[in-house]
Structures are given as structure tokens and as C-alpha cells.
Design brief:
This protein has four domains: 115 residues, Beta-Lactamase (2-Layer Sandwich); 102 residues, Beta-Lactamase, CATH 3.30.450.20; 158 residues, Heat Shock Protein 90, CATH 3.30.565.10; 119 residues, Response regulator (Rossmann fold). It is built from 23 helices and 22 strands. A five-stranded antiparallel sheet has the order 2-1-5-4-3. The protein has a five-stranded antiparallel sheet with strand order 7-6-10-9-8. The longest helix has 45 residues.
């Protein structure tokens, strides 16, 4: 006899005993509960009917103390929202799944609730506390990573390379980008994510694409330096593989460093040239001294016509002009011994001379290319200033040069002098390209230039600033406007020592001096002897330091004038020996074609110096100071 269908159902159904064993053996917490409603049928509580051991372990409540009790009895501070949620399951016969944190157990659960029968419902509790903690830790880690990613000063981007059908890299997507890089590109981070780089910038360096593709394919990290034409910058680039098709890339702007390196190399090259130039300039000065000495001797003749004297004076002026240019060569070659000797100067006259000397820059060179620059002057009535003439000429030259370079199509330069409360001013105004705010703030910084390395090294205006500040003056951009031009104002202190200087120069020498002139070139020594004697003094000569010391033992002298560069005992050694033996009884004057500044004189405890080529008046001037 075959079993009927009802018998089959009974055979395959789960009896209460089997259900209890399954219920108790589950690894997740499970409860069977009965909903309790109020008179209006709204959920107000529920009662525990069954609780398995897993729930007991999860919740910390015992089965024996919970069965038959309501949830409010077991958990007095249970929230009504929790009861309402489970009431919804029973009333609507709809299962729900949600995540719940229980502050009583300090655990998080994934809860599944479903209607069972006759106002009953079951709940399954999966303890996901560790998972939630791991998620929080991951979120915190991601937040820290994001903070670190955005706080890096380097520009960093994660890219996904795009290849063409020939497997050649042609573009990339920006998958992640840090804040400094977004700021550099001028867009918010969120606008850059998942965009092609070619939609943001116009050009991609082909060498970069190939390098990044190599990193992605080989997995080998690389570092290289490269120039980016889009922003006219040089970068140090680092790249490393992250996942398939994605590469992490860092960009560090090293433009200023590379420019400084170029300037340093150029500086060393110029220093070597300068040393050679300084040595040649010394020889020039000796030759000029021979010319000047002989010229001064000719001038001693009494029966010279007015015309001859005029020509002699013109030759003397030419020699002094050549000497001034030679001094510039020495200053170029020896910055440590830059001539800091100040004198009373007419700013208007020096400005006129500087305009004339810079004529090739603003007139000749411009006319060669069919352009024209005019320089207009407005000289005010001003007192003399106390300044180094070479430095002042250089300041004015650099102001003119700066204006010329700001007028690539030609234009007008207006130079004005006058007096104001702060001192004597000079303004240089042009109608050139002008400056933006960034350039205005940086114009006096060393190595800053907007002209490119070949045109300017960024040292001219910083040198102007340095020299003027050291002299107690000031320089500033008085006004500027892009496309309209710039006005730079220099203010220098008026000459407060003019009266003292005039008195010093007018002082006469009461007595005739006994002078020993020491020089290894006899022709220079002889011409200098004649000039000194023409001033009413007695003069002997020696051709070496050793012989000079012998003469000093035999004869009494008031003054010794010595060259520096001599074979055997040089001028500094002779001066030291004289000071050691005679103290200040004999005055020492250094006469040299080298560029000697006050610091060098003080180091050797020397007060007086004659720079070759010197005139009779300059010798007289030095003697008057003794």
C-alpha cells in the first residue's frame, strides 16, 4: 500500500524536538518572541518564548531568567522604536533586515526579523561588532591617508594610462589627485577626478607618457628631471606602479633650484674670467700711471701755450676715463675688494654721464632693429650726494637697462631728479610692459628675472637694492601697471660731510716732507719722484722692499710710498716691517694698480692709498690728510 500525501508531509516535516535541536545548535543568536499590543493594537512590548545559547552568549542574559519575560523586563531602557520596528514585522507580515548597536552589550548586530505565526516573530542576531570596528578603523585610516595625501607639499596624482590600438600610451585619467596639485592646475579636486589630462592641459610631454608606461609594464619605479612646456617649469618626477594600468606620480617644481645652479655655474665661470680681468687691469693701471706721470711732468713746464695745456688736460681726462673703466673691470673681478670709497658727487652730472655711457643699449642697438627709445631728463636743483661714483653709475645704468628691456617695441624713458624730505631722489619712468603684483614684490630679489636666463640673471636690480640700502638710501617701485609702464624711485641721503671735505681738501701742508718712493718699475718711480718734488717735497726712490729698509736705517723719512706687487718683499710686508720698527713715526701710503678697499687697508693698519693712475693733485690731496 502506498503512503498518501498527508503521510509524506508528516514524514518530511520538522517536529518540535528537531526544531529545538536546530534552534539550540545555531551559531548565530536566535529568539522566538510574542508581540504584546495595547488596546488600540499598537506594539508596546514583546515576550521571549525561546532563546538559543548563541543569543545568551551574545547578549549576556541567561535563558532561564529571560524565558517568559518581556523585553522591557530584561532590558528596561529598551527604545520604543525597536519595539515598533518588530511590531511592523508581525502586523504587516513583512521580514526586515537591519544593523543595530546595543549599548547594553556594546556590540553591533545584523538583525533579521520575520513573522512566525499567531502574533509571534523570530529574530536572528549575527554579531558583527568586529566587522564594524574594522570598518571604522578602515574609514579612519582612509581619512588619515586622505589628510596625509593632501598635506604633502609635492604634487601627487594617481593616473590610469590610456593606450591606443598599437599599445602605445596616448593619455591618462586622473584617478586621485592631492590638493597642492589641484591648486597648481587651478581647479577643485573633485572637478579633476576621472578626467583625461588632455582635457585639462594642452600638451603632454611624450617622454613622460613613455616613462609612465614603462613603470606600469615593468613595475620598476623611476625618478627623473624634465622640463614641462605647458607651465614653463622644470620638475623632478617620481613614478611607481600601483595596480594594473595605474601609476602613482609625484611632481616637484625645481625651476628655481635649476636656475640657481645655472647661475652658480655662470658665477664660477665669471669669477675665473674676473680674476684674469683683474690681473690685466692691474697692468693697465701701471701703464696708465706711466702716461699720467709723464703728462704731469710735461705740465710742470712753464712756457706751455694755452692750446697745448688744453690738449694735455684732454689727454689727462682720457687717461682718467680709461682708469675708471679699468676700475670697473677690477670691481667685476674682485667683489670682495669692491671700491667703497665715497666722494661728493653731483647726481645730475653722473646721471648725464651714465645716459651717455648706456647709449649703445638704448639707442644704437635699438636703431639697428628699426626701433627707437628716447630718454628725457628733468634735472632739479639739488645738493651733492656722498656716494661711490662707480656704484652710482652702475645704479643708473641698471635702471636704464631695466626700462629698455621692458620696452621691446621701443618707447620713452623719463629721468627726473629733485629733493624731498627723505633726501635726494631720482625717478626712472618708462612706458613699457609694466609689472604684475607678483613681479613687483620680487623685482629686488636675487636671481629673480622675467626675461629668461639668457637675457637676465636677476642680479641687476637686486644689486641696485643692496648698494642703495648699504648707503642708507631706499629704492622702490613707485608705480606700475601692466601694459602702461613702471616708475622706480631711488632716494639717497644728501651730503652732510661736504663742508668738512672742503675744509680737508683746502688744508695746506706747512712743511716740506721727506719721501721714500718704493717701486720695482724704475720709470714709474722716476716720474713720481719728479711730481713729488714739484710739490715742494724731497723724494728718494728704491726699487725693492729690501733696499728700502736699508735706506730707512741710513736716512730719516716722513713718508714712504710703496707699490704692492714687487718681487721678494711685497708692499704689505714692507709696510708691516716699517710699522714694526718705526711705529707711526713714518706715514705709509700704498700706491697700487690693484683694487684696494678700506677693509683691506684696515686689515694691514694702513690709512692712506693712491690708486694708479694718480695725478699731482691726488698726491697733494693725500699729503694734506697727514
Amino acid at each position: 500500500m502506498q503512503p498518501n500525501n498527508n503521510q509524506k508531509k508528516i514524514k518530511h516535516s520538522i517536529n518540535e524536538d528537531q526544531f529545538q535541536r536546530m534552534f539550540d545548535g545555531m551559531n548565530i543568536g536566535a529568539t522566538l518572541c510574542e508581540l504584546i499590543t495595547d488596546e488600540q493594537g499598537s506594539p508596546k512590548d514583546y515576550r521571549f518564548i525561546k532563546i538559543n545559547p548563541a543569543f545568551e552568549k551574545q547578549s549576556g542574559v541567561s535563558v532561564s531568567s529571560s524565558i517568559g519575560k518581556t523585553v522591557k523586563e530584561v532590558f528596561p531602557d529598551i527604545e520604543q522604536s525597536w519595539i515598533d520596528k518588530l511590531g511592523y514585522v508581525v502586523i504587516n507580515n513583512e521580514p526586515i533586515e537591519f544593523i543595530n548597536y546595543n549599548h547594553n552589550t556594546d556590540k553591533s548586530y545584523n538583525v533579521n526579523a520575520f513573522s512566525f505565526s499567531d502574533g509571534k516573530f523570530a529574530m536572528l542576531f549575527e554579531d558583527i561588532t568586529q566587522r564594524k570596528k574594522a570598518e571604522k578603523k578602515l574609514i579612519k585610516s582612509e581619512q588619515q591617508y586622505k589628510q596625509l595625501f593632501n598635506s604633502m607639499t609635492e604634487m601627487i596624482v594617481v593616473i590610469e594610462l590610456i593606450y591606443n590600438k598599437y599599445n602605445q600610451p596616448i593619455d591618462w585619467y586622473i584617478r586621485q589627485i592631492n590638493k597642492p596639485f589641484a591648486i597648481f592646475l587651478g581647479k577643485p579636486q573633485e572637478e579633476l577626478l576621472n578626467k583625461k589630462i588632455t582635457s585639462i592641459i594642452n600638451t603632454i610631454e611624450d617622454s613622460w607618457l613613455k616613462s609612465f608606461a614603462k613603470v606600469e609594464k615593468t613595475g620598476e619605479s623611476i625618478t627623473f628631471e624634465n622640463y614641462g612646456a605647458e607651465f614653463d617649469k622644470t620638475y623632478q618626477v617620481g613614478a611607481w606602479k600601483m595596480t594594473k594600468n595605474t601609476v602613482g606620480v609625484s611632481f616637484t617644481d625645481i625651476t628655481d633650484i635649476k636656475q640657481a645652479e645655472k647661475v652658480s655655474i655662470e658665477s664660477h665661470r665669471l669669477s675665473a674670467i674676473g680674476e684674469m680681468a683683474s690681473s690685466i687691469a692691474h697692468d693697465f693701471n701701471n701703464s696708465l700711471q706711466l702716461m699720467m706721470g709723464n703728462l704731469e711732468i710735461i705740465k710742470l713746464q712753464k712756457n706751455l701755450s694755452v692750446t697745448v695745456r688744453e690738449h694735455i688736460n684732454n689727454i689727462g681726462a682720457l687717461i682718467k676715463d680709461v682708469a675708471s673703466r679699468t676700475k670697473s673691470i677690477q670691481n667685476f673681478g674682485d667683489k670682495n675688494n669692491y671700491n667703497t670709497e665715497f666722494e661728493s658727487l653731483d647726481l645730475n652730472q653722473v646721471t648725464a654721464e651714465s645716459i651717455k655711457q648706456s647709449r649703445p643699449l638704448w639707442k644704437d642697438e635699438m636703431e639697428k632693429i628699426g626701433l627707437k627709445i628716447n630718454i628725457n631728463t628733468d634735472y632739479g636743483e639739488i645738493p651733492n650726494i656722498f656716494f661711490n661714483k662707480g656704484a652710482l653709475s652702475s645704479i643708473i645704468y641698471n635702471l636704464i637697462k631695466n626700462s629698455v628691456e621692458a620696452m621691446p617695441e621701443g618707447g620713452e624713458i623719463a629721468i627726473k631728479t629733485g629733493i624731498k624730505t627723505e633726501g635726494i631722489f631720482l625717478t626712472c619712468m618708462d612706458n613699457g610692459i609694466g609689472m604684475n603684483q607678483q613681479t613687483k614684490l620680487k623685482i629686488f630679489q636675487p636671481f629673480y628675472t622675467t626675461k629668461g636666463y639668457k637675457t637676465g640673471r636677476g642680479l641687476g636690480m637686486s644689486g641696485v637694492y643692496s648698494v642703495i640700502k648699504e648707503a642708507g638710501g631706499s629704492v622702490k617701485v613707485k608705480s606700475t601697471s601692466v601694459g602702461k609702464g613702471t616708475t622706480i624711485e631711488v632716494v639717497l641721503p644728501a651730503n652732510q660731510l661736504e663742508k668738512i671735505k672742503i675744509i680737508e681738501e683746502a688744508a695746506s701742508i706747512k712743511n716740506s716732507l721727506r719721501v721714500l718712493y718704493v717701486e720695482d718699475e724704475a720709470i714709474i718711480a722716476l716720474s713720481s719722484k719728479k711730481i713729488i718734488e714739484a710739490l715742494g717735497h724731497k723724494c728718494d726712490i728704491e726699487l725693492s722692499g729690501e733696499k728700502a729698509l736699508i735706506s730707512l736705517d741710513k736716512k730719516k723719512y716722513d713718508v714712504i710710498i710703496t707699490d704692492i706687487g714687487m718681487p721678494g718683499m711685497n708692499g704689505w710686508q714692507l709696510a708691516a716691517a716699517v710699522k714694526n720698527k718705526f711705529g707711526d713715526a713714518i706715514k705709509i701710503i700704498i700706491a697700487s694698480g690693484w683694487n684696494i678697499n678700506e677693509k683691506e687697508l684696515k686689515r694691514h693698519k694702513i690709512k692712506y692709498c693712491l690708486a694708479k693712475p694718480y695725478t699731482k693733485e691726488e698726491i697733494k690731496k693725500v699729503f694734506s690728510k697727514m
